[in-house]
Amino acid sequence: MPSEEEKINRLPAVNDQSLTSHHSSLHLIDTHCHLDMKEFDSDRTEVIERARAAGIEAMISVGSDLDGTVRAMKLSGEYDFIFASIGIHPHDAKDFSEDIYLKLRGWAGDKKVVAIGETGLDYHYDHSPREVQRAVFEKHLRLAGETGLPAIIHSREA
After folding, report:
1. Domains of the chain, earliest start first
2. What pLDDT does 25 receive?
3. What angle do CA 156, 157, 158 make, to 5 degrees?
4. How many of the other CB atoms lie within 10 Å of CB of 83?
5. What is the spatial distance between Cα 130 and Cα 87, in angstroms, rounded to a whole number?
6. What phi-psi label fits residue 19: left (phi over 0), alpha (psi between -120 and 50 degrees) or beta?
7. What are the angstrom distances between the C-alpha of 150 and each of 37, 106, 153?
8. Hey, which residues does 122 pair with through a beta bridge?
9. Is the pTM value of this prediction over 0.85?
10. Per-residue confidence at 26, pLDDT binned at 50, 70, 90?
11. d(C-alpha 59, C-alpha 35), whole Å
12. pLDDT band for position 84 (50/70/90)?
């Protein structure tokens, strides 16, 4: 069975123009990216510029822990076409607290925050107890309902 890397390497290459050349009215939005991650520290600006050059009109940098949420919001303030979601990934649900909930609720009113999450259930690794994941997921959904923002849901083997 091929590894994930081998599967990805077999995908056909996409040049910057091929996505938009046939559909001049095509609008591309990256609805789930993690531009805040440390893996992009050395070339984040270049990655963002390549996405724009490829025709990406907007990006949602998805917060998945408290620090990542803060970085996603910071990026959304630096670029007019980058927006943020705010939330705690199910892997980190064990670290969720009322203080974090209050911070998320306060940030939800920011004009560049467009969604709640990444939230949900991940029973593959069980980095956080399942009952804790469920409770945190419910809090995220309540916040989404209160604010009218959509929820970005992560679901794996749940």
Report:
1. 27-156 (3.20.20.140)
2. 76
3. 90
4. 23
5. 17
6. alpha
7. 22, 16, 9
8. 156
9. no
10. confident
11. 9
12. very high
